[in-house]
Predict the 3D structure of the following.
Amino acid sequence: MAFWDRPDGLAGPGWQVVAGPKGIEAPLAFRQRVMVYDARTSAGEELAPPVVAGMAQWAYIMDGPIRVGGQHAQEGDALSEADAPMPTLGATRDTTLVAPLLDPTAPALRAATISGQWDGL
């Protein structure tokens, strides 16, 4: 587990990469093909979820409600799309979103530091 305190002024408009695999410029590094973005949006702002080729999209609403097409989602809801880009997310008030992107073809990693079988990936 890793923790990170966002420095003041780092949160810009749109999506910010928070974590990713080795080779991705991100504050936190994973040993898996997973990327995590976050965004802080204002009421009325619309964002297209981040897209990375070969990775399935997810969006998690940390706080605040959003619109997705004609539907409403709220704090604690999650959305996903594996085969097509997700629709635009529209904030109906100030909202914090997290978007993990996952490689659906990646093999599950069963040997890790907790199991005592970490192989230094």
